[in-house]
Amino acid sequence: MQSEVDALLSLQEDDTRIAELEARLHALDPRLTALDRKKEAAAGALARAKTAVETEERRQRDLQGKIAQHKAMQEKNLAQFDAVKRLREATAAMAQVESARRIIADDESELQALGRRLAEMRATVAANEAALAAVEAEQADARESIRNERAEIEAALEGARNERGGKTGAVSRPLLGKYDRIRTRRPKALYPLRGDSCGNCDTAIPMQRRNHMSVGGPIDICEACGVLLYRAASA
Ligand SMILES: [Zn+2]
Q1: Are 91 and 202 part of one and the same domain?
Q2: Ligand 1 centre distance from Cα of residue 172 (Å)
Q3: What is the pLDDT of residue 87?
Q4: C-alpha–C-alpha distance, residues 89 and 69, integer Å
């Protein structure tokens, strides 16, 4: 029959494997985060470029409205100019036409500049769209390989946990409880005696307690570091 020490050692092997698999699983997270960050940066640049275009388009519409208004007013000015007969009134009407003409000319040149700026900004949007698409294409393989690795690790973890679960019956409940409590604080709970000392912390174990521990026999606790100790066949 398998000794309790052997049963617990085998359980500990499973736990080591489970811990390794869990560490591998956690190691995937920063890789995924890095991919997400890069993609978010590209998407953010695109969103900002689009917002800038929208703001400029709003200004364009406002300016176009203003010009239309001024042109309508100018038509009225010209009609008035045609209607006046007296020289003094004609001079005043002429000045009004001239001033409106300048305002409209200024607005139209601003509108042209705005149109050129918008064309550049739309080109930036297109470039940002292409950049985001490139990042997504470039990341597709990396994301798939992370997905595959995760599935593979999770399957291995499930297997390892099932295997471990099948072994707990061979260890007494109080000992299993102690073992599990120790493992919440350290990666390994069960160590062999090394000569006369604890295999973990090297503190000498009193002879009386050592003598009590036989191969495969009672498990003791190191009073210095708190791990479980057993006597290995070769020790
Ligand atoms: Zn110790």
Answers
A1: no
A2: 22
A3: 82
A4: 24
57 inside domain: yes
List CB contacts of 193: < 8 A, sequence separation 6 or more.
199, 205, 210, 213, 229, 230, 231, 232, 235
Q: Are residues 159 and 55 in the same domain?
A: yes
At residue 227, the pLDDT reads 96
| CA–CA gap between residue 48 and residue 46 (Å, rounded) | 5
Do residues 183 and 191 lie in contact, with contact meaning Cβ atoms separated by under 8 Å?
A: no
**Ligand 1 center to residue 170 CA distance, Å?**
25
> Is 155 inside any structural domain?
yes
Structural domains of the chain, count: 2
Domain that includes residue 85, residue range: 12-167
pTM: 0.72
Q: What is the pLDDT of residue 89?
A: 84
| Tokens at 232, concatenated | 């290995």
Domain endpoint, select from 143, 167, 191: 167
Query: Is residue 4 in a domain?
Result: no
- R_g of the chain computed on alpha carbons: 41
- 71, part of any domain: yes
More confident residue, 130 or 80: 130
| Distance of CA 186 from the midpoint of ligand 1 (Å) | 12
Q: How far is the CA of 196 from the centre of ligand 1 (A)?
A: 11
Same domain, 157 and 59: yes
- Ligand 1 centre to CA of 17 (Å) is 23
pLDDT tens digits, one per residue of 177-201: 999 999 999 999 999 999 999 999 9
Q: Which two tokens stand for residue 134?
A: 């490139």
Do 134 and 213 lie in one domain? The reply is: no
| Tokens, residue 52 | 């800038």
